[in-house]
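hi!! sorry for the late reply, been swamped w classes. u asked for the two structures so here they r. pasted raw, havent cleaned anything up. first the sequence of the first protein and right below it the tokens
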Amino acid sequence: MQESKSNTPFKPLGSHLRYLREQTQESVAEVSGAVEIDMDKLERFEQGLERPSEDILMLLINHFDIQDNEAVQLWEMAGYEDAKSERFGLNADVLGGKPMMILMAMDMRTMYSDGIQVNASKNGVTMNFTHGKQPVSRVGMSREQAEVVLHALQSALLKSQYLGGPRLLPPSFEADTSK
């Protein structure tokens, strides 16, 4: 019995992650695609064989839309306790018990791509842009935001195709009275 516990040190965490996935009626492939990890890795998390990194656990918490106490419980099951709060210099009172993610754009140069991979689930869309075989950018968004982006792209392409040149006034058709 002792040996089995040592082989699956994160069994409670894994069981809870599996429960969350089953409650959302998602497959391992759907969840692993949404948080961009290997299916084998997610299965090892669910079996309690491995602990997800802090970043992956945060992505799973956000993916399953886990709030307050349940998020804290998952965090503690993973053995992270208050490490994240201390790392960011925040305490639970400031965060209100909710997970927080901050992204800052460090480089505003335009990166051109010639390839794209799109993964979609009922929870959102992830787009991976590449140039050759090199990753250029990864963007994730809700389904609603993806529809807004799709409409904006279609509109921009139509405008560039049909309104690409300078807009000219129509020629004047005044009667020539000098004759």
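now the second protein. again sequence first, tokens right under
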Amino acid sequence: MATALICSYSKTGHTRRMAEAINEAMIGTGVKTKLVDVADVLLEDLEAADAIILGSPTYYGTMAAPMKDLIDRSVKYHGKLAGKVGGAFSSSGMLGGGNETTVLSMLEALLIHGMIVIGSPKIAHYGPIAIGDPDAKALQECHAYGKRLGELTLALTHG
């Protein structure tokens, strides 16, 4: 069975709501998911998952320190995450707050690991974003993203 680790950091709960929406959609595709706070991620969880989805609020145009710490520690598995599905999402306090740069910084790390990421020509191109508490449109994008990630994970794992 295909598996996904959806890992996020959320101080206000906004990013966590996005993670829950992505999680729900991935479960709907048949992927077994593990939704976890970044502080509770074991490095072994990264290697065990077929897909790794990262979510962080935007702080000064980039991811929160706990997420960066996980990425820094993930070097232990450099080369062992290649071929897995990756994705990222972010929330921020205002429009122009750096959401896209945050998502891109997380995707860059996943690409360096050799992971497969998917963009969208229709919705948030790099991954879902929200301004403050995710509204209905942001949650809809999270669901669409989770569905696409789930389908890709199943296709690549013959799940």
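hope this helps!! also noticed smth abt the second:
Helices lie at 14-29, 43-48, 65-73, 99-112, 136-157.
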